Amino acid sequence: MGKVLPYCGVNPVIHETVFMTDGAFVVGDVHIGAYSSVWFNAVVRGDVCPIRIGEKCSVQDNATLHVTHDTGPLTIGNCVTIGHGAVLHACTVKDHVLIGMGAVLLDDCIVESWSIVAAGSLVKQGFTVPEGMLVAGVPARVMRPITEAERRNIEESPENYVRYSNNYRDAEQ
């Protein structure tokens, strides 16, 4: 189980079905919904503003989720996959989104539902990723609508991570 720490007397609220690995940190005003997971060395730091993570989300290895007191909270919907090494800062990610490995999402950006932020992309402050689109690049630009195969991947990824979490739990017993 990862490390769960209060900040200024505020404790994280983590649903009992959430899976956290060793090395993961969840700090302060953070709520994590059912069947979500926080993986190796990920940091979810809700110290100066709240972080809300929905159900069936995976915060993968070395991802960093943080906020700023000036721009406000970080909100993540349901069924969101956050790839390895991604950085999300004081932004909004709607339901059914895939954030690629090493992507960076800056303050006040919005990623609408059924979208993909490609690996290594930089989503600028205040930019909105339209629903159903793939964005890529530095800075990220709208490339095209997602394909049916990509839509299936967005649907399957949360279920895969629930299964992986259960496999790790089973191995611990």
From TrEMBL:
Recorded coiled-coil stretches: none
Keyword entries, A-Z: Transferase
MF GO annotations: transferase activity
InterPro entries on file: LbH_gamma_CA-like, Transf_Hexapept/Carb_Anhydrase, Trimer_LpxA-like_sf
The UniProt record lists the keyword rRNA-binding: no
CDD domains according to UniProt: LbH_gamma_CA_like
PANTHER family: DYNACTIN SUBUNIT P25 (PTHR13061), GAMMA CARBONIC ANHYDRASE-LIKE 1, MITOCHONDRIAL-RELATED (PTHR13061:SF29)
Protein name stated in the entry: Acetyltransferase, CysE/LacA/LpxA/NodL family
Species the sequence originates in: Chlorobium phaeobacteroides (strain DSM 266 / SMG 266 / 2430)
